[in-house]
Amino acid sequence: MKTVSENRCFGGTQGVYSHSSAATNCEMTFGLFLPEEAQHFTVPVLWYLSGLTCTHENAMTKAGAQAWAAEHGIAVVFPDTSPRGDGVADDDAYDLGKGAGFYVNATQTPWASHFRMWDYIADDLPALLGEHFALDMDRQAITGHSMGGHGALTLAMSLPERFTSVSAFAPIAHPTASDWGRKQLGAYLGSDETTWAKHDATLLMREVGFDGPVLIDQGASDQFLELLKPEALSEAMAAKRQDGVFRMQKGYDHSYFFVSSFMEDHMNFHAEYLFA
Amino acid sequence: MKTVSENRCFGGTQGVYSHSSAATNCEMTFGLFLPEEAQHFTVPVLWYLSGLTCTHENAMTKAGAQAWAAEHGIAVVFPDTSPRGDGVADDDAYDLGKGAGFYVNATQTPWASHFRMWDYIADDLPALLGEHFALDMDRQAITGHSMGGHGALTLAMSLPERFTSVSAFAPIAHPTASDWGRKQLGAYLGSDETTWAKHDATLLMREVGFDGPVLIDQGASDQFLELLKPEALSEAMAAKRQDGVFRMQKGYDHSYFFVSSFMEDHMNFHAEYLFA
Fold it and tell me: SS3 for A137?
């Protein structure tokens, strides 16, 4: 593991690190905010999964998470959204290939050799974090924005007891029924749609739900509402009697101005369960 | 004036607007955060002047000001750092020309026709803001980072009674004695150094001081300490018996991670006097 940069931030450290990943078979970069408490003992960790076109950096600099993470003494990890590098397949579209890993393990050419972001987030990066940093990997929570909200919800529901709590900002809620989903799941997983179901938060919610509390924020003026399909997830949560809250936020759009506006609420939400 | 974008943010609106400026003789773009209160009555305004290479956008997305501005009901204006456009002179160096206006009125070719950022911030933009937005222009405060800290301090000391309070993050504190200053003041104002003095916060502090409270934060691990020369300003503040606080922050560098870490303190500081 290499240290790319470390900046003092809210009494702790905002670091950027790179490492060779067995899951994605390439060099990966991630951000990690460690609160001051991590100098003295292990701290719980919140995963923040980012959306289409983002790297590890966008949320790290624009979501305003560190202020509230420092207040609670929680670490925040900001992974990249896809494999990177010259040898990694890509597509001209912004929503396929680099920056658009969709948190799945691709099975199709040309994606299968590197696009294994599910394994990267579920296994590879947690092992590295637990080994190198003062993190209590028995206390993890997860959140994300847009494609990252999709990733957070699908990982949380598929890995029982891994995360104490899950939240999402404007998640891609029903990708098997959306152009943000059908294109990518088809490219990465192939045309057999039965392999897509475990990567759809609404279908997973209907089927299994989450073994903890859920918080969803969605902007009512989001320019991508037709692609995100929040109503499908909201309906599924209610029908499943899922312990959780779905909030439609009047006037907010899809930007980081929306995310940062509600970051304190999400951090407070996760802190309640991480420190329970 | 044209609306470039408006995003709902912390209950208010983060807007970006452009307008034709008589001062800089070109189209200028600025960011303006209006808290929710501005829908009902006029609110006080904090100016945030940015540093070298920045546009209106950097601090608007990375400094974390909106959270605390919303809490207090204060507007924040984020001006650009130089004139822009095809017809505007530039230099290959990052620290001269576009993105490096240095908050002066240039008198030398090729800069004099557009590089009049002093007049833009002191006269042109305030007039526009007062006309178009629910701002109480009798209650203004000013802050800035690096070159913007230099701008905030020099404007505040040169315009008595304009600002209730001034603060700065890692300001260029003594530009007439630094490579961050001598190069730019020479290029924009010419070789007669007597014209430089009113653009040096340390010299102004020695001479006139500020007619209100001052707050300065400086990272002790700032990579540009030799260029910023904080000790000169700190000495001048103490010698002038200036009402103010100079804080050396252990471990912090020159980045927005430093700025955002102390933004709450600066907003609380200005709020105390804006609402006195």
Answer: strand
